[in-house]
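Open question from group meeting: does this chain pack into something compact, or does most of it stay loose? Before anyone orders reagents, we agreed to write out a predicted structure and look at it together. Recording both the input and the output here so the notebook holds the full record.
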Amino acid sequence: MKRTIILFSILLMPFISLSAHEYKYEAKLGWFPIDALNIVYLMGEDPSGETTYGPMKTAGIFSADFDYKVKKWLTVGAKLNYRNSWRDIKTISDGLEVYSIDRLQAVSVMPTVKFTTGHDSVFRYYATLGVGAGMDLSSGVNDAFVALQFTPVGISVGKKVSWYFELGIGHAFMGFMTGLSWRF
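Structure tokens returned:
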């Protein structure tokens, strides 16, 4: 029984730290299965009826962040995002049916500023602002754009290893993002 308790304690150490150690760095990996940008993208349907679109499928939005804590309330970092969605297209032209795949892909990189608005031993509340560059890799498009992201609500639960939830709007994601972070 004593060995079981010791083993269980060792396994939980990364998640629950009893020290008041302040971590300077944080690495985050996030994912959300729904790409709200698809709703905007679907508004461009063909009114002539010559083109039929299949349902939009998505792998979701993937995000990787690295942050450096400058002050207790201020963190600077970088964010890398990737989104990938697709749908089948059937076009009728001169009596011939042509099948293809319509892709919505984008990648963006941006420096970020995070403002910690409150925290206690386990919970942290924050807001993030990011401005950077992106590339639209959609079917037939290779355009660069200015990537903006505003996340007014961010909640992190944990100490060294934590789960986070963000509510935001921008090129990185529209809606929610969730994932795990590691502070060191």
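Observations to bring back to the group:
The radius of gyration is 21 Å.
The chain is about 10% helix and 65% strand.
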